[in-house]
Amino acid sequence: GVVAIASPSDVAHVRHLLGPGAEERIREQGRAEVDIGGRRFEIGATFLDDLARHDVAEAAAALVVPLLVIEAGADTIVGPDQTDRLAAAAGATLRRVDGADHLFTTRTHADALAAVLLDWISALR
To answer: Mind giving me the DSSP string for 93-120?
Structure first.
């Protein structure tokens, strides 16, 4: 099986997260720092090129193995519209970890994430 944790359903959402003018800066300079969810990342032009070659929902729908989509309930980066769309596109199982941020940074949420994963994996047998 495949597990998508707090994953967007399309690359347009990822591009949006880069921020205003980021793609232009990246193309002009070859790479640039962007802020996503309060964290700094260096993004290169090859990343942008790679994004253009992918359709996340289409790839998920083409899977021939079970897919689990896990939504972080308090995610401010990838919202439920994205995870719902991804799960629907692939006919996947959708689970939510209430109160979790995008990175499942608290021990409670990380433990809940692990429990969801283990339950789903156990059910595959």
So the answer is: EEEEETT--TT--SHHHHHHHHHHHHHH
Q: Identify the sign of the CA torsion 23, 25, 29, 35.
A: negative
Q: Is the dihedral of CA 47, 51, 56, 62 positive or negative?
A: negative
Beta strands in the chain (DSSP E): 2-5, 31-36, 39-44, 67-72, 93-97
Comparing C-alpha atoms, which of 62, 47, 65 is closest to residue 3? 65
Stretch 77-89: mean pLDDT: 95
Q: According to the model, what pLDDT value does residue 36 have? A: 84
Residue 4 has phi, psi (to 5 degrees) of -115, 115
